[in-house]
Amino acid sequence: MYHPDLLRHPDSCPALVLNADYTPLSYYPLSLWPWQTAVKAMFLERVDVVAHYDREVHSPSASLKLPSVIALRQFVRPNEYPAFTRFNLFLRDRFRCVYCGSHRELTFDHVVPRAQGGRTSWENVATACAPCNLKKGGRTPREAKMHIEREPIRPTSWQLQDHGKSFPPNYLHQSWRDYLYWDVELEP
């Protein structure tokens, strides 16, 4: 019997990691563990296996189906506020320039320039494309006569997770789908 999972190399069989409440630890980036880490967690009884790949690994005395979805046995409380990183900043702004809406040549901009006392913080840094950033220069949006689509805020982890759902990864194993988008509104 042919099944695509049987031909997969074990290294291309990551396990989707769910919290103890069966929600993903993270949507973007998607919470995945390499198969070796997932198997080790199984043997240490730190996770429950929810679904398997058809792919097996073998030792001299045993064979084991690789887990495709695992759930932690202990709930991990997510941080309320995410780290201030370039990636999280772009995710907060949905990978769009706050001035023109472009998705190309993204960088970040200090809304109040550092030369005018602006700080490097969630509340003063926004995603901007290179042309808009160059046009704005060392001025405020008002001084540059540029409209800012949304004022920068410090997002919560929940807000970033919600934004992350809009950017699914390139590959989703069939066994993951029920756990990734369970809160999507159903079609009538």
From TrEMBL:
Upper classification of the organism: Bacteria, Pseudomonadati, Pseudomonadota, Alphaproteobacteria, Sphingomonadales
InterPro entries in the record: HNH_5 (IPR029471), HNH_nuc (IPR003615), NA-targeting_endonuclease (IPR052892)
Keywords in alphabetical order: Endonuclease, Hydrolase, Nuclease
A molecular function GO annotation: nucleic acid binding
Alphabetical list of Gene3D superfamilies matching this protein: 1.10.30.50
Pfam family of the protein (one): HNH_5
Keyword Nuclease: yes
Domain HNH nuclease residue range list: 84-134
Protein name per its UniProtKB record: HNH endonuclease
Protein species of origin: Sphingomonas cremea
Top-level lineage group: Bacteria
The keyword Hydrolase belongs to this UniProt entry's keyword annotation: yes
